[in-house]
UniProtKB/TrEMBL annotation:
Protein's name in the database: Cytochrome c oxidase subunit 2
Biased composition range(s): Low complexity: 44-70, 351-370
Localization per record: Cell membrane; Membrane
CDD domains: CcO_II_C (cd13912)
Transmembrane segments: 114-135, 156-178
Primary localization class, coarse: membrane
Stretches for region Disordered: 20-85, 341-398
Enzyme Commission designation: 7.1.1.9
Organism: Sphingomonas hankookensis
Family: Belongs to the cytochrome c oxidase subunit 2 family.
């Protein structure tokens, strides 16, 4: 039974967002990297102070970054556009999201082709047995009940059959579980995700301390004039963020999570990744993204009043583009030789506790000038807001 529960929990973990609302206009991007199909997002040029702010955000970097951010258009709008049904929930969908990591594909197949048939077969068998007993042995049809209390053959069958079913399920289940938490190889790209009430900040410890702070983008009617708001190019409502994190495709990613205040959880359904972010602890998992694209997730551990408003957006790009993005952010590549082929590089892992100290400063440093909801809220006590939900904070009644 325990195995079944474990396996079912693992299988269900990726589907938590299937019912989340989504607001993608049809045709907003048939091609993931379509450069600004249609009209440019309103306000992106005039009201997007972050667009060209990447060099300024890393003012403490050795030299101003001369590399253009490969993920942005010249007007600062995102180059990669959200594609319906990829890396995000779909309207009325029942199945798990399409998977873009090897573990995810294995888990989805396990869920759809092993667990579901077994569950359906057992449910139908039990339903049939119940119906048979109810009809065949009702008082009218069977006025004198049997006094039989033991039947060795049937007792062996109803003990052995469930054991065999659970054992058969356990074999792929335990293997999958182990693969999800297999330590990343030495050539993995490390990203540290830090949960904050209520936004995510990220660090790339092997790339010169590049850090990114991601706040949810509000809707147009929720921001003051001149401030940046969500467009369909950014992604679906409640899932789009101002600063996406960028990860390379085809390279193992070592994800480390922690938190500054309460327990959060970093989750991307399309990656089959959900990892709690616990204050004072480092959790680790690894995954490899198969395809370039834009993948969305949400905090998945109830963490306070704005728990629903700290989305995650990952932009998966080819390695060369990832390296260019790192340089545009003022970061450094682990080595010149490794820049050409980082998948062969051995990346040393720095001490984890030093990275913690920089997380608090990350928000102000990289987001100067943007309408950050949490910049001030993060420092204030949250108990008052749990009911009031903060003045001027959008989406309070959603
Ligand atoms: Cu959270």
């Amino acid at each position: 039974m325990r195995m079944l529960v474990l396996a079912a929990a693992a299988a269900l973990a990726g589907g938590a967002h299937a019912a989340a609302p989504k607001a993608v206009t049809p045709g907003s991007g048939e091609v993931a990297t379509a450069p600004q199909a249609g009209a440019p997002p309103p306000g992106s040029a005039a009201a997007n102070p972050t667009g060209q702010a990447a060099p300024a955000a890393t003012a403490d970097a050795p030299a101003p970054a001369a590399v253009q951010d490969p993920t942005l258009n010249s007007d600062g709008s995102p180059r990669m556009i959200a594609v319906p049904h990829v890396g995000q929930p779909s309207d009325r969908a029942v199945d798990l999201q399409a998977q873009f990591t090897p573990n995810g594909q294995e888990a989805k197949a396990f869920h759809n082709h092993i667990l579901m048939p077994v569950i359906v077969a057992i449910s139908l068998l039990v339903l049939f047995l119940l119906a048979y007993v109810v009809i065949r042995f009702r008082e009218k049809a069977n006025p004198v009940p049997s006094k039989t209390s033991h039947n060795t053959a049937i007792e062996i069958i109803w003990t052995a059959a469930p054991v065999l079913i659970l054992a058969a399920i356990a074999v792929p289940s335990i293997g999958l579980l182990a693969r999800q938490f297999k330590p990343a190889p030495d050539n993995a790209v490390t990203i540290k995700a830090i949960g904050n009430q209520w936004f995510w900040s990220y660090e790339y410890p092997d790339y010169g301390g590049v850090s990114v702070t991601a706040n949810m983008l509000k809707e147009r009617n929720e921001v003051a004039a001149g401030q940046r708001y969500r467009t369909d190019a950014d992604g679906p409502r409640l899932l789009a963020v101002d600063n996406r994190i960028v990860l390379p495709v085809g390279v193992p990613i070592r994800l480390i999570t922690t938190a500054t205040d309460v327990i959060h959880s970093w989750a991307i359904p399309a990656f089959w990744v959900k990892l709690d972010a616990v204050p004072g602890r480092l959790n680790e998992t690894s995954f490899t993204i198969d395809k370039p694209g834009l993948y969305f997730g949400q905090c998945s551990e109830l963490c306070g009043a704005r728990h629903a408003y700290m989305p995650i957006a990952v932009e998966a790009v080819p390695v060369a583009q990832f390296n260019q993005w790192i340089q545009a952010k003022g970061g450094t590549l682990p080595g010149a030789a490794e820049a050409a082929a980082p998948s062969n590089a051995v990346i040393p892992q720095p001490g984890a506790d030093t990275a913690d100290a920089t997380s608090a400063a990350g928000n102000t440093a990289s987001d100067a000038g943007t309408p950050v909801v949490n910049a001030t809220e993060a420092a204030s006590p949250s108990t008052q807001r749990a009911t009031g939900n903060g003045g001027g904070v959008g989406n309070v009644d959603q």
